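Checklist before submission:
- one chain only
- standard amino acids only
- sequence pasted in full

Submission:
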Amino acid sequence: MEFLQMSLNELKQGYRIDQANVCCNYCQEFFSFDSEQKALAVSQINEHLNRVHGGPNQALVSFASKYNTLTEKQKELLFSFSSEKKDQEIADLFKVSPSTIRHQKFTFREKAKQAKVYLAQFEAVFSEKQAPEDSLIPVPEATGVIDDRFVLTEKEYAEIVRKYFDFSTGEVVLTVFPKGQKNVIGILNRIVEEFSMRKRYSGKDIDRQLEKIYFDYLLIKRYLIDYGFFTRTPDGSEYQRIY
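Returned file contents:
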């Protein structure tokens, strides 16, 4: 889930609309639609969210991510606040006083105000004034802890593509597998563009397409999986680009 590319409404509703697909924010499930079936696809993704993830609210509060900094107790409180229980009932549930529950609600509201101001500050500085070549290439969360080794601007990305790929034959050919996390992220971002988002590929299809790009296609495939660009079934028979 790339947070900077999603609106607050998309985060709250639990899905986003990507070209001709309605995609779940929390797993690889998606529903395709044409011009007359969009409402049906939205209905299907909502049913999926309720059945698999306990509904959009529960999924948003409880999903595992380094960006979700809520403690387990805070998550339990938010679940309780989303119900129709009164403060006294929630207080009885947590074995505290109603005034403590009211204070917790106040604390959540204050944090929301702080987050709103910070978001406005961030967008004012980065969204409007940052040059396009200085914007950052997104990195899948599966990569792990993101530090300076992974920070890659659009300008740096373009330089990596020019340095490590040969396009003279009309095909995308990786001339050498680079060293350094930043370079690896760069080439993987370019390689993954050769695959369609959300399309399901067989293992043979993946190998055949990657072999055209680099002779050691198994190395590339392992990195695409390990870095979270692709997911695969447990038996390795089916692959899907998710980033």
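Reviewer check: The mean pLDDT is 86.
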